[in-house]
Design brief:
By secondary structure, the protein is an alpha+beta fold. It folds into three domains: 68 residues, no CATH class; 108 residues, no CATH class; 109 residues, Immunoglobulin-like. Helix content is 30%, strand content 30%. The protein contains nine helices and twelve strands. The strands form three sheets. Strands 7, 8, 9, 11 and 12 form a five-stranded antiparallel sheet that branches. Helix 6 runs antiparallel to helix 7. The longest helix is centred in the N-terminal third of the chain and has 16 residues.
């Protein structure tokens, strides 16, 4: 149970719930007594709700369940002073993404093994897909990389239902230990705020002219599910300063990306490239600052490069 500052009635409610969890009513019978919205809540939060919270929720009278749900999300809000609950938004965004990406094998994507790991650990740093197996006699397999760790999913029945390889469960446990608990502020769920990596290349195309290419890896782009597509909006800005700190060039561009889940799968190991033709004047050496902002998740990344011209 998380230790937090809370109102007295909530603490009393928790203590009351703990006292009744050993009653004779079965959990399944209590679940059937829930209304449709309450059942959906309990189903959707399965990856973050604690066993204690679940027991308490099932024991509550119907009149108290709405307050429980509101307090449930408040407890996970990493920045309660703001109007947005980043945890809740990130959680349901990942759920939508998993549902779109992994809806194969006769199971909803967010309920699959890949969906569960996507939601709890976040998108992998790198993802390898082998739909025809790694060898002639092999099963379809996916390998997800989280830092130095590798997680394997195997489709042993060739039906699109990739199951977590049992040996990878140990890797997941180690990842969880290395990182803060994912369902608490500061955990991996909030590491969407980590700097997004991207590449920048510059080539001289003429006197005082340069071609700048900014490459955004699809594997690190956050999308929001909208009907049957995944969409996001980026703004990429360039600023060039000369050796004296004077701004001598720049450009900016707003980019909208819309793909189907299958297109995202096919492009996962590729990059989205933006080309800028710009003029450069002034005294060398120059400093190029590139800022990439994902408007979908309100996150920015920045790189600075020194170059002579």
């Amino acid at each position: 149970m998380h230790i937090i500052k809370t109102r007295g009635w909530w603490l009393s409610l928790i203590l009351a719930g703990v006292l009744v969890v050993f009653s004779g009513c079965s959990s399944s019978r209590l679940e059937k007594s829930l209304g449709p919205e309450e059942q959906e809540f309990l189903s959707k939060v399965r990856y973050t709700i604690t066993s204690e919270e679940r027991k308490i929720f099932l024991k509550l009278p119907p009149s108290e369940r709405k307050s429980f749900i509101e307090e449930f999300w408040k407890r996970r809000d990493p920045r309660p002073e703001t109007a947005v609950n980043e945890f809740k938004e990130e959680y349901f965004l990942r759920l939508e993404q998993a549902n779109k990406l992994f809806g194969e094998g006769g199971k909803q994507g967010w309920l699959s093994d890949r969906g569960r790991i996507w939601i709890t650990l976040g998108p992998p740093d790198h993802r390898e897909t082998y739909p025809r197996g790694q060898s002639f006699y092999g099963f379809p397999v996916e390998i997800w990389h989280y830092g130095f760790y590798q997680i394997y999913f195997i489709d042993r029945f060739w039906n699109g239902n990739y199951q977590l390889d049992p040996a990878s469960a140990r890797q997941i446990a180690e990842i969880t230990q290395v990182q803060v608990g994912w369902n608490q502020p500061g955990g991996r769920l909030f590491q969407g705020s980590r700097a997004m990596d991207f590449d920048v290349k510059m080539d001289k195309t003429g006197e005082g002219k340069a071609l700048i290419v900014v490459s955004l890896p699809y594997s690190q782009i956050w999308f929001r599910a909208r009907q049957d597509r995944l969409e996001t909006v980026f703004e990429v800005s360039l600023e060039i300063e000369d050796s004296g700190g004077k701004k001598v060039g720049g450009d900016s561009r707003k980019v909208e990306i819309s793909v189907t889940p299958q297109e995202l799968k096919d492009r996962f190991d590729q990059t989205y490239d933006l080309e800028f033709q710009t003029e450069v004047s002034g005294r060398s050496p120059f400093t190029l600052k590139v800022t990439v902002e994902n408007k979908t998740e309100n996150k920015k990344s920045e790189k600075k490069l020194k170059f002579d011209f």
